[in-house]
Amino acid sequence: MARGTRQRILEVAEDLFQHKGWAGFSYQQIAERLDIRSAAVHYHFPSKTDLGVALLKRYRSSFNWWCEQLRQRKATPEVSLEGFFALERRYMDEGKVCPLGVLGVEAEGVPEEVRAEAHALAGDVLRWLTKVLEQGNRQGVFHVAGTPESHALALMSSLQAGLQLARTLGTDAFYTLLEQQREQLGLARRRRAVAGG
Fold first, then answer.
1. What is the CATH superfamily name and number for domain 52-196?
2. Among 20, 52, 100, 109, which residue carries the largest CB count within 10 Å?
3. Average pLDDT of the residues of the chain
4. Which CATH architecture group holds 1-46?
């Protein structure tokens, strides 16, 4: 039962964190959602720092599991990248901001231990994206401007910005940036060619 409670706390905390930001949610809100006492949340996560570290480790674990599934299916670079775009689209459809975006905006108010886990998550994503872009460029699937790592960084930045801007400018802002990335990589032309052929 205790393990189930811990898992439910993390699920609710994740939802609140991505909707309201680091400073925008409390243990009391988690407890109310789960119909438990705040003391029960503190039992599993004595401090918000503990909870934040666990959340970021959970994101890293989920992302690395997702990458492993793609690897086992021998997904092409194009399928892999479109899968990544779909992850970001899901955040937008659910009205969420990517955890890296949340912590980027609130970095000054976030404990160092949580920032360290966010840095590790960003590194995981950047390394994976770089590898996918390298493979796609080598196979002639993508047209990568500059180095694969710099393009991966630009891609991450663009999608983060799109999720933030969608909250004020509407979802079109996100989709515009997403299509721009497809155009820059040559994916949009490939899709038009396939559709026309």
1. Tetracycline Repressor, domain 2 (1.10.357.10)
2. 52
3. 91
4. Orthogonal Bundle (1.10)
